[in-house]
Amino acid sequence: MGREEAHALIKKYAVQNALGMREGTEQHRLVEDLGADPMFPLSTGEIRELLADQSRFLGNAKRQIRQVEQRVKNFIVHYEDAEKYEPGEIL
Question: Per residue in 13-66, pLDDT tens?
Fold first, then answer.
Protein backbone atom coordinates (compact mmCIF):
# COMPACT_ATOMS: atom_id res chain seq x y z
CA MET A 1 0.00 0.00 0.00
CA GLY A 2 1.35 3.41 -0.92
CA ARG A 3 1.67 6.30 1.48
CA GLU A 4 -1.18 8.23 -0.09
CA GLU A 5 -3.51 5.23 0.02
CA ALA A 6 -2.61 4.51 3.64
CA HIS A 7 -3.12 8.15 4.57
CA ALA A 8 -6.55 8.22 2.91
CA LEU A 9 -7.62 5.08 4.79
CA ILE A 10 -6.32 6.39 8.12
CA LYS A 11 -8.05 9.72 7.51
CA LYS A 12 -11.33 7.98 6.69
CA TYR A 13 -11.36 6.09 9.99
CA ALA A 14 -9.94 9.00 12.01
CA VAL A 15 -12.70 11.34 10.82
CA GLN A 16 -15.34 8.65 11.32
CA ASN A 17 -14.08 8.00 14.87
CA ALA A 18 -13.81 11.69 15.73
CA LEU A 19 -17.38 12.36 14.60
CA GLY A 20 -18.69 9.35 16.49
CA MET A 21 -16.88 10.36 19.65
CA ARG A 22 -18.07 13.97 19.33
CA GLU A 23 -21.67 12.80 18.97
CA GLY A 24 -21.21 10.38 21.85
CA THR A 25 -22.24 7.40 19.74
CA GLU A 26 -18.85 5.72 19.53
CA GLN A 27 -15.74 5.00 21.59
CA HIS A 28 -12.23 5.53 20.25
CA ARG A 29 -11.83 2.61 17.81
CA LEU A 30 -9.32 3.86 15.27
CA VAL A 31 -6.82 1.03 15.82
CA GLU A 32 -9.54 -1.62 15.70
CA ASP A 33 -11.17 -0.16 12.60
CA LEU A 34 -7.88 0.10 10.72
CA GLY A 35 -6.79 -3.38 11.75
CA ALA A 36 -10.10 -4.87 10.63
CA ASP A 37 -9.99 -3.26 7.19
CA PRO A 38 -8.71 -5.83 4.65
CA MET A 39 -7.14 -3.03 2.59
CA PHE A 40 -4.90 -1.91 5.47
CA PRO A 41 -1.63 -3.89 5.57
CA LEU A 42 -1.41 -4.21 9.36
CA SER A 43 -3.59 -6.11 11.82
CA THR A 44 -4.93 -4.60 15.02
CA GLY A 45 -2.25 -6.44 16.98
CA GLU A 46 0.53 -5.18 14.73
CA ILE A 47 -0.72 -1.60 15.03
CA ARG A 48 -0.88 -1.89 18.83
CA GLU A 49 2.64 -3.32 18.89
CA LEU A 50 3.95 -0.38 16.86
CA LEU A 51 2.14 2.14 19.06
CA ALA A 52 3.38 0.52 22.29
CA ASP A 53 6.92 1.86 21.84
CA GLN A 54 6.17 5.54 22.31
CA SER A 55 9.86 6.48 22.13
CA ARG A 56 9.53 6.04 18.35
CA PHE A 57 7.39 9.19 18.25
CA LEU A 58 9.93 11.49 19.90
CA GLY A 59 11.95 12.20 16.79
CA ASN A 60 14.67 14.74 17.57
CA ALA A 61 13.11 15.83 20.87
CA LYS A 62 15.68 14.11 23.11
CA ARG A 63 18.61 15.56 21.16
CA GLN A 64 17.03 19.02 21.18
CA ILE A 65 16.43 18.84 24.93
CA ARG A 66 20.08 17.92 25.53
CA GLN A 67 21.17 20.87 23.36
CA VAL A 68 18.96 23.32 25.28
CA GLU A 69 20.15 21.85 28.57
CA GLN A 70 23.79 22.36 27.53
CA ARG A 71 23.11 25.95 26.46
CA VAL A 72 21.46 26.67 29.82
CA LYS A 73 24.42 25.14 31.68
CA ASN A 74 26.84 27.29 29.63
CA PHE A 75 24.75 30.38 30.35
CA ILE A 76 24.73 29.65 34.08
CA VAL A 77 28.52 29.25 34.12
CA HIS A 78 29.08 32.58 32.34
CA TYR A 79 26.44 34.50 34.29
CA GLU A 80 26.43 32.85 37.71
CA ASP A 81 25.71 36.16 39.47
CA ALA A 82 22.56 36.73 37.39
CA GLU A 83 20.37 34.81 39.82
CA LYS A 84 21.14 37.43 42.49
CA TYR A 85 19.98 40.31 40.29
CA GLU A 86 17.18 42.39 41.74
CA PRO A 87 15.55 44.87 39.36
CA GLY A 88 15.12 48.43 40.54
CA GLU A 89 12.05 50.65 40.32
CA ILE A 90 10.92 51.27 36.75
CA LEU A 91 9.27 54.62 37.41
Answer: 999 999 988 888 777 889 999 999 999 999 999 999 999 988 888 888 989 999
Long-range contacts of 6-15 (CB under 8 A, 24+ apart): 6/40, 6/41, 9/34, 9/37, 9/39, 9/40, 10/34, 13/37
Q: Could you list the residue range(s) of the whole structural domain that residue 53 is in? A: 3-84
Count of CA atoms in the C-beta half-sphere (13 A) of 23: 8
Q: Residue 91: inside a domain, yes or no?
A: no
CB of 22 within 8 A of CB of 14?
A: no
61: in domain: yes
For residue 57, give Cα distances in angstroms to 10, 15, 54, 66, 76.
17, 22, 6, 17, 31
